[in-house]
Amino acid sequence: MNLQNNLWNCHDNNENENKCCPKVVFAILPTDPTGPQGLTGETSPTGPQGGILNYADFYALMPDDNAATVAPGTDVSFPQDGANSGTSIARTGDSSFNISEIGTYQIYFNVPVTEAGQLQLTLNGTPLDYTVVGRATGTSDISGIFLIETTTINSILTVRNPAGNTTALTITPSAGGTNSVSAHLVITQIA
Q1: Which CA distances in Å does 109 have to 18, 56, 138, 169, 186?
Q2: Coil, helix or strand at residue 3
Q3: Is the whole model's pTM more than 0.70, yes or no?
């Protein structure tokens, strides 16, 4: 066998013509050492803070905290303070809550009621129509979860039995047992 036969793979095709193809030879070479680390780049600007910025939970225990019915046009009381992250979300009374910072907030409320009815959020005394929730029958909770944006500092939030409704709402004093039932309003600043 000569050198040409070592570098070329020759074979015959059906027409007895001599066809040659180059052979591919691979060699594994040793790895070179790693070079020095490069310079550190410039620090990027800090991005916006994410997650939960502030939060507060307000609640009521029935029957004592909402002994009377909640008439149309009247706000639900949440006179007890739950967990909170500070003073940027605070109460101004049993049924009104100050949001001191401009931002986006997730609002959750849950109120057990006896009658069919509705509840909605108000911001600075203005009903937020997109927050009306209710139920037609049965004895269960009325609950809602919404995003609101405040555009002024010290905005006041309430949960209200909408004006124009005909039914005063009884906050359920006990449901399924002898223990007090709770109602909650949770305000969480997310932006």
Answers
A1: 87, 12, 19, 15, 6
A2: helix
A3: yes
